[in-house]
Amino acid sequence: MGDIRVGMIGYKFMGKAHTQAYKNTNFYFNPKTPFQLKAICGRNEKNVKSAAHTYGWESYETDWQSVIDRDDIDLIDIGTPSNTHKDIAIKAANAGKHVLTEKPMALNVRDAKEMLKAVTDSGVQHMVSFTYRRVPAISLAKRIISEGRIGKVYHIRANYLQDWLADPQSPFAWRLDKNVAGSGAHGDLNAHIIDLTRYLVGEFDEVVGMSETFVKERPVEEDSTNGKNTNNNVSLRDVTVDDATLFLARLDNGALGSFEATRYATGRKNNEYIEINGSMGSIVFNFERMNELQFFSKEDEHHLQGYRNILVTEPESHEYMNAWWPPGHLIGYEHAFTHQASDLARAITQQQPVYPNFEDGLRCQQVLEAVDNSIKSRTWEKVEKTNF
Ligand SMILES: NC(=O)c1ccc[n+]([C@@H]2O[C@H](COP(=O)([O-])OP(=O)(O)OC[C@H]3O[C@@H](n4cnc5c(N)ncnc54)[C@H](O)[C@@H]3O)[C@@H](O)[C@H]2O)c1
C-alpha cells in the first residue's frame, strides 16, 4: 500500500490542527503508510490557496465535491461545521474513501444513521474526532478503570466550561446558528464529555436536562468599508442555539452522572473536567492540567490514603508518550490530534477498525438528542440505542 493521500475539507481551526497531526504523525510515529497532504478545500479561493501554501498542501480545491471526485485521494477529512458533515461523509464513502469527521458527527440522529449506513455499506474506515480520548492521561484513566482499580463506578461528574460568549457584545458566529451547528454548547461541548463517559464507564440509559440561551441576539460583524462595526450601524441576529445545557443521567451499569456545558463560565477557558468515583477509588482529569491524572485508591495503606497526582509523561508506561520526549517534558492540545491520526494510519494500513467510529458518533448523538427531548418534554427520557 502506498501513502495515505488526504483530502481535507476546511482549513481553519480544525483544518490547522489536523494538518499538523498528519505531519507530526509522519515525523514522530513513523507509520508504515505515511500521510500525504494532497488537497485542502475551502470556499474562498484566496484564503484556501494561502492556507495550502502555509500548511504545506500539494493543491487546493474550492468545492468539496471536486476533492471527492479525485482519484488521488484515499481519505476525506471533514473539518467543517456540522451541517456539512452528512453530505460530505456519505459522498466520500460512496466514492470508496475513508472518512474522518469532526464532532458532533451530525445535526441529528437521523443524519448520523444515514452516515453510518453509508460507511458500513462501502466498507471504508470511519472515525469521529473525539480527540480527548487520546490524551495520555485519559488512556491511563481507561487503564486504571479497566483494571478494576476504582471498583464499581457510582458517579460521573463532568463539565466542559468556556467563557467566550460571556460578553453580550461578542459577535454572532456560525456556532450560534442551529441550522449550521445543530446545537450550541450541547453538541459542541457536552458531546465530548458524553464520549469520554461512554469510553471510560459505559452507555447511557436515561437523561433529564435543562438549557438556556442567555443572550438572544448578537451583533453581526458587517463587512463595511473599514471592516468594523460602528455603534450606530450594528445589525443584530437571533441566537438559535443553547448557550448552556446541563443534564443528569443514569447509566446502564447503575452509575449516576451530572453533566454541564456552558460558554458563560466567566474565567473558564477550556475547562473540561471529569471525575469518576467508584467503590475502590476515584480518578479526576482536568484538561487544563492535561499532563496529569489524579487517582485515589482505597487499596493504599490507610495512613497514606489521599489523591495522588500522576504526571503522565513516562515514555515506557504511558500510551503514546514513547513517541515524544523524556519524562516530565510536557505535551499539549495538538498532541491528541497527532495520536488520533497515528491510530487512524495504523487502522488503514492494517485494515483494522478504529475507534471512536461512526457507531460511537451515533451513540453520542442519541444521548444529545435524548437530552434535547427531555428539555422539551420536561421529563426523563430514555436514550435510544441502535443495535450494531
Ligand atoms: N475535536 C475537537 O476538539 C474540536 C474542536 C473545535 C472544533 N471542532 C469541530 O470541528 C468542526 C469545524 O470547527 P472549526 O472550529 O474548525 O470551525 P472554523 O470556523 O474554524 O472552520 C470551519 C472551516 O470550514 C470551512 N467551510 C464551511 N463550510 C464549508 C463548505 N460548505 N465547503 C467547504 N468548506 C467549508 C470554512 O471555510 C472553514 O475553513 C465543527 O464540527 C466543530 O464542532 C472539534
Can you tag this structure with a few keywords?
single chain; 388 residues; alpha/beta; Rossmann fold; Dihydrodipicolinate Reductase, domain 2; 2 domains; nine-stranded mixed sheet; six-stranded parallel sheet; 17 strands; globular; binds nicotinamide-adenine-dinucleotide
Sum this structure up briefly.
The chain has 388 residues and is an alpha/beta fold. Helix content is 34%, strand content 24%.
Task: Explain this structure.
The chain has 388 residues and is an alpha/beta fold. The chain has helices spanning 13-29, 45-55, 64-69, 82-94, 109-122, 136-146, 178-181, 185-200, 333-350, 358-377, and strands spanning 4-9, 35-41, 59-61, 75-78, 98-101, 126-128, 153-161, 204-212, 217-220, 235-238, 244-251, 256-262, 271-278, 281-286, 292-297, 308-311, 381-382. It has 10 helices and 17 strands. It has a 9-stranded mixed β-sheet. Strands 3-2-1-4-5-6 form a 6-stranded parallel β-sheet, sandwiched between helices. Strands 9-10 form a two-stranded antiparallel ribbon. Bound molecules: nicotinamide-adenine-dinucleotide.
